[in-house]
Amino acid sequence: MGKKLFGATVLAFVLGATPAFGQLPGLELEPFLGAYIPTQDIVDQDIPLVGSVQGSQKEAFAAGARLTAWLAGPLGVEGTFTYAFSDAENLGAVTADQSAGVWMGSGRVILKLLPGPVGVHATGGVALIGRTGDAYNDVTEGETDLGGVVGLGLRFKLPGIFAIRGDVDAFGYETQFTGDFGGTTLETEGQFQVDVVASVGLIIGLM
């Protein structure tokens, strides 16, 4: 009896979301554009037989998409994918820029902190970060990393099923590479990274 009563109470809560949130589409798609801003070097150490190596990703244009499903009340879940058209800058003995795109996928919980025509929200979850391009041709391990992401954003309601959304997200993770350089296998030290993505997109309510 107690379990049935508890289940009925939970179901009533889910179905009885407040009118303010009930007006929101249950499923939203948001294509977005933004800026990718790395804050740390990806490699910074002295490597035997190579010398001082200090490399970093460069700031870049980013694009992506977000799919959000709203649950009961102010809570929702979302998945995002972002690609940054970045280069890698090698600041060692030889200075060179090479193509080094960065992709980021994430699964998050989103919480509406302030509902209404102008809303505020926070997000947090897990992220997978990967690197591609000429800069990583000699890397045999470490091109993909698991980390976390937190974000804060604003939402501006437009007529109909549309809204403008802006977000600032911080991805935290550690990089460590193993590579085959001139027939010698080398491993870099772990470097903690914080990559920031600032984006603006158009929300389209799907249902």
From TrEMBL:
UniProt signal peptide: 1-22
Span of domain Outer membrane protein beta-barrel: 59-196
Keywords recorded for this protein, A-Z: Signal
Domain of life: Bacteria
One family name in Pfam for this protein: OMP_b-brl
Statement: the UniProt record of this protein carries the keyword Transport: no
Name of the featured protein: Outer membrane protein beta-barrel domain-containing protein
Gene source species: Candidatus Kutchimonas denitrificans
Organism lineage: Bacteria, Pseudomonadati, Gemmatimonadota, Gemmatimonadia, Candidatus Palauibacterales
